[in-house]
Structures are given as structure tokens and as C-alpha cells.
Amino acid sequence: HVPSGALMIDMSTTSPQDARAVGARCAELGIDFIDAPVSGGVAGAEAGTLSIMVGGRDADLERARPVLEAVGRSITHVGPLGSGQVAKAANQLLVGSTLTALGEAVLLLERSGVDPAVALGALTGGLAGSRILDAKGPQVVARELSPTFTARLHAKDMAIVRAAAQDAGCVLPVADRVNEVFAVAIANGLNEQDHSAVVRVAELLSGTHPTDWSKE
């Protein structure tokens, strides 16, 4: 029911294949379409500092720019339809992999008798330093897992990563393992906790007695 000539801006995180299919259907109806997934979470949206990855035509991006600038600081045209979703999949792969490694690193420090807060403070000054380490390190050390982005949503995004990899014909062994880690997190009731709750998977595999983590 949208009139011909309208512009549809999809800012959700979906598969590249879905973005291309919706774009094709919109084209049949005379509707312009871009895929524009975001990174930065609720806090970034409220502050207007999201990173937005756009797939589609230059002209359609320019039409959308005033809307995107209301919530985003970094707006990047990454290619044709579906490219925004590919970039978001790459983002979620990097974030999920780093969160998984962060959880394992914290557990290794704890089990070795090293204060993880002190050690992570040292790591931030080296090559391991990152925005994820800064933002999520203290949260993982304290096991303060109230969500800024849920494990359930990140598990969904890792499935998108796998589908995109299959479509592109590439093998991503780290992505496969991270996908498994998030699947274990979901199977153990961590759905609505922060995506950094993957530290619980390392605990579980290391012999921690299961508790009702979903209520922590």
C-alpha cells in the first residue's frame, strides 16, 4: 500500500539475501529501498551516534540521509543492496568473537589466581586493547550481565553470519565456533542476558555447577 516513489529504509539486522529479495520486490512496485543496519545499541541511538552501514543506490542514500543523521554519526555507503547487511554480519562476527575470547580470558585469569580487573587494565594498553574490552571487561569481571544487547539477538545474528558465509562460499571456522557458543548460552537460559554472558559457557565447560543464570 506504499505509493510508488516512496523510500523504504530497513534499519533492522537481517540476512543479505532477505535485503536483496525485499529490494527486488520494492523495485517491482516502484519503491526505492536501502538496507541500513546499525551498530551502537540503544545508547548510541539515543545519543545520535550510531554507526550505520548502507547498501543500495547513492541517490537513495542521499534521500535517506536526513533520517539517518538523526540517529547516526557514521553513515557509510558500503555497496549495492545487501551490502549493509553483509557489513553488519561482519560487525557481529567481530563482536561475538571478541566477547567469547574476553569471557575465556577472564576465566583463565580467575582460575590462575590473577586479579582479572588488574590484568585487563594492563591489557587495555597493549594490542589486545579495544572498545569491547573497555566497555564489557568490567561487566564480565563482575558478572553484571544486565543487557545492552541480548544473547538471544546475538545468537540470531551469528546464524545470519553463517548464512552469509555459505552464500559467499567462504569457510569461517571461528564464526562456526562462536555460533556454537551462543547456541549453548541460549540452551542454558541466558537468552535475555547481555551478550557478554557467553562467559558462562566457558564456566560451564570448565566445571562450574549450573545455576539458574537467567535470574542473575
Walkthrough of the structure:
- It is built from 9 helices and 5 strands.
- With 216 residues, it is mostly helical.
- The protein has helices at 16-28, 41-47, 58-69, 83-111, 116-123, 131-142, 151-168, 173-187, 199-205; strands at residues 7-10, 32-35, 38-39, 50-55, 72-79.
- The radius of gyration is 19 Å and the shape is elongated.
- Helix content is 56%, strand content 11%.
Q: What is the H/E order?
A: EHEEHEHEHHHHHH
Q: Could you name the ranges where pLDDT drops below 50 across 5 or more consecutive residues?
A: none
Put simply, the count of helices is: 9
Structural class of the helix and strand makeup? mainly alpha
Arrangement of strands in the largest sheet: 3-4-5
- The best one-word shape is elongated
Query: What is the tally of beta strands?
Result: 5
Strand content: 5-15%
> Which range best describes the helical content: under 10%, 10-25%, 25-40%, 40-55%, 55-70% or over 70%?
55-70%
Rg value: 19 Å
Average pLDDT for all residues: 94
The rounded distance between the terminal residues' Cα atoms is 45 Å
How many strands, which pairing sense, and closed or not: the largest β-sheet? 3 strands, mixed
